[in-house]
């Protein structure tokens, strides 16, 4: 547990010094979430980034949510709804976006095989 705490402290410090790195971090976390659906990792990453920007109370103000409601979202065992996630990311200075993914065969080719 001590290693995790030290890592989180290091990560928080590093991200608080570099906005571009924060954006890359969140982008990587979102990609990882889409691949493995690990809600805990997503929520933990959002908490770390919130810490770099004034904490949960500040993030709650920016999202116009109560700190308790935001804590509940970030500690739930379910992923936040897309509109809630978008609101949180916007408050952190980011946004959700759609980008193409690399696939071995496009959907159109898969349909032709049937």
Describe the structure.
This protein has 114 residues and is mostly helical. The chain has helices spanning 2-16, 19-36, 39-52, 55-63, 67-75, 82-91, 107-112. Helix 2 (19-36) runs antiparallel to helix 3 (39-52) and helix 4 crosses helix 5 (67-75). 13% of the residues are buried.
Q: Which SSEs are present, and which pair or pack?
A:
Blueprint: H1 2-16, H2 19-36, H3 39-52, H4 55-63, H5 67-75, H6 82-91, H7 107-112
Helix pairs in contact: 1-3, 2-3, 3-4, 4-5
**Rounded mean pLDDT score:** 90
Intertermini distance: 51 Å
Compressed to H and E, one letter per element, the order equals HHHHHHH
Q: Largest sheet at a glance?
A: none
- The whole-angstrom Rg is 17 Å
H/I helix tally: 7
The backbone outline, from C-alpha atoms, is: globular
- Summing up helix and strand content along with how strands pair, one would put the structural category as mainly alpha
Q: Helix share of residues?
A: over 70%
Strand content: under 5%
Total E-strand runs:
0
Low-confidence stretches: none
Compact description:
With about 110 residues, this protein is mostly helical. Helix content is about 70%, strand content about 0%.
List keywords for this structure.
single chain, 7 helices, mainly alpha
């Amino acid at each position: 547990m001590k290693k995790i705490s030290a890592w989180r402290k290091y990560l928080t410090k590093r991200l608080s010094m570099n906005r571009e790195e924060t954006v890359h971090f969140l982008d990587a976390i979102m990609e990882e979430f889409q691949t493995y659906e690990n809600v805990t990792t997503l929520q933990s990453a959002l908490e770390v980034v919130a810490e770099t920007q004034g904490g949960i109370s500040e993030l709650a103000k920016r999202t116009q949510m109560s700190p308790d409601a935001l804590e509940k979202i970030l500690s739930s065992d379910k992923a936040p709804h897309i509109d809630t996630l978008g609101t949180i990311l916007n408050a952190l200075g980011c946004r959700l976006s759609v980008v193409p993914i690399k696939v071995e065969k496009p959907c159109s080719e898969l349909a032709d095989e049937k």
